[in-house]
Write a structure and sequence with these properties.
By secondary structure, this protein is an alpha/beta fold. The chain contains 16 helices and 15 strands.
């Protein structure tokens, strides 16, 4: 079976690649403008080529917008693009998604090559398809892997040393040992690096622990689970940059007077942090004074306010950087070439995924198959009537509207029984489209056949049944209690009212009498 899947995968990927124009090395750019040099951070792409769009919060990103944004930044000054964290894949994937995942990885490699990546630090997900496949994607990307060997980049008049920190296996202490990192950073300084940057495909905790022991580093770019932080934060003697994931944003670091001696500073960020710290102390002292009327607190409060007033405006001189998180909204310009590659990829999905879809898993002995909402309606008409007013009842239509009915990443959360025995697979969803009753209450064949026997259904599925689809990448504002109220209604967790407004309980129709034995 595995060999058959691999063969079909190879054919599917080949077909998808045929639709994508060949992409050789990026042509030499025009002479760089005289603006300050900049580093652009792309972190934790985890296989995203375009935003999923599941909610209004998830419309940022897309490789076409990312490449266009990089091109725009190059017009403003010498630019180096740094890619860190799991890029091609997030984690191992099931066979039915293999064709799509591999095609996305190829597209990402081509698009990043088009952007012109200067350095790359892969994350733990990048080898999900094996070492040989990673090597192939790395060659297509065309950028040095700085976890293997540091690189010295020339960005305008600034020499930027870049080292990579890959995932660490084994004992936890190995991740926090600063000695190897310190040695590499010192070597880059000895080679003439004005600024030293770490591309860290590790956890935030590991990076902060390392930073305390490696004062030679100026910037730590987080690659594993980075937040969308609008400001740098102190890390050891340097600063931590978190530019988010999935290509929703670019992190932009603009360097000023960076070839000068001394440490790289963040004057605007440092001033804002000092201001916030004083604000907190002033608020605390003011509350204490209001409660105790202690005269000494008045003097302390006056001193804090004087310090706050004396805070100087951020300096615009010296060796420093400015950091900004640059969002890539739906209205952002798109690179036409990469946009065409994404369109070709989407057009290839039906053939790509049907080739690996397989059959609906059989129901094991004693198990149940999914029967669909039409069967539920016979005994629960009020509940189904209310369900039709919810967004769950329009889940499939959203895929139809966006031409995503053959996207293996999307379909599973818009149908019932995805990849389950007696449920659905790609291309075999008839009667089980939308988030129907059985998405939460489980397969109900025997519940129906036995006239509503309750031991054959999951009466109270709880939050665990929701978070498989309502997870942070697809539903970042999900709150179980809030969302639950949206799907509870008459006959479904709430009373059903008759015309006299008195509650009554729906009862199933009587079972048909069995014919008498001959």
């Amino acid at each position: 079976m595995r060999r058959a899947v691999a063969l079909s995968l190879g054919l599917a990927v080949a077909a998808s690649l045929a639709l994508l124009p060949a992409c050789g090395p990026r042509t030499a750019p025009a002479p760089a403008p005289a603006g300050p040099p900049r580093l652009l951070v792309v972190s934790s792409l985890i296989g995203y080529v375009e935003p999923c769009g599941c909610t209004v919060d998830l419309t940022l990103g897309g490789m076409d917008r990312l490449v266009a944004a990089v091109d725009a930044e190059r017009q403003a000054g010498p630019t180096a693009v740094l890619v860190v964290g799991s890029t091609f894949f997030e984690k191992p994937f099931p066979d039915h998604r293999a064709g799509q995942e591999q095609a996305k990885a190829d597209l990402i490699a081509k698009a990043l090559r088009r952007a012109g990546v200067a350095a790359f630090a892969p994350g733990p997900g990048d080898r999900a398809a094996g070492a040989d496949r990673f090597a192939e994607l790395h060659r297509a990307l065309g950028a040095p892997d700085v976890t293997a060997a540091p690189a010295l980049l020339r960005v305008g008049d600034v020499a930027v040393g870049v080292l990579g920190l890959g995932p660490v296996d084994g004992e936890d202490g190995a991740a926090a040992d600063p000695a190897p990192v310190q040695a590499r950073a010192a070597a880059l300084r000895a080679q003439g690096a004005h600024v030293v940057v770490a591309l860290a495909a590790r956890s935030r905790r590991d990076v902060r622990r390392l930073a305390r022991g490696v004062p030679e580093l100026d910037l730590w770019l987080l690659g594993e689970h980075p937040t969308e932080a609008g400001a740098a934060s102190p890390a050891g003697e340097g600063y931590l940059i978190e530019a988010g994931d999935r290509g929703r944003n670019l992190g932009r670091v603009i360097l000023h007077d960076a070839a000068a001696p001394g440490r790289l500073a963040d004057p605007a960020g440092d001033a804002e942090r000092a201001r916030r710290a004083l604000d907190g102390q002033i608020q605390m002292k003011a509350r204490m004074l209001a409660l105790t009327k202690e005269p000494s607190l008045e003097q302390q409060l006056a001193e804090l306010r004087a310090r706050q007033a004396a805070l100087a405006a951020p300096t615009d001189a010296g060796k420093r950087f400015e950091y900004a998180l640059v969002p890539l909204p739906k209205a952002h310009p798109q690179d036409p070439e990469v946009k065409g590659w994404i369109a070709a990829y989407n057009q290839a999905l039906q053939a790509l995924n049907l080739a690996n879809a397989g059959e609906v898993p059989p129901v094991p002995e004693g198990g149940q198959r999914y029967v669909g909402v039409a069967e539920c309606e016979d005994c629960h008409p009020e509940a189904v009537e209310f369900w039709r007013t919810t967004r769950h009842a329009r889940a499939w239509q959203t895929l139809v509207d966006d031409d995503k009915t053959f996207d293996a990443e999307c379909v599973g959360c818009h149908v019932v029984g995805w990849q389950q025995p007696g449920g659905t697979v790609l291309g075999k969803t008839k009667g089980l489209e939308d988030v129907q009753c059985e998405a939460c209450h489980g397969p109900n064949q025997k519940h129906v056949e036995e006239g509503g026997a309750e031991h054959h259904t999951v009466r109270d599925p709880g939050e665990a049944g929701c978070v498989g689809c309502h997870h942070p990448h697809h539903s970042p504002k999900f709150d179980y209690a809030t969302y639950l109220e949206k799907i509870l209604g008459p006959g479904h967790g709430k009373p059903v009212f008759a015309e006299d407004r008195k509650p009554h309980k729906w009862s199933p129709p009587p079972l048909e009498a069995k014919p008498a034995a001959p």
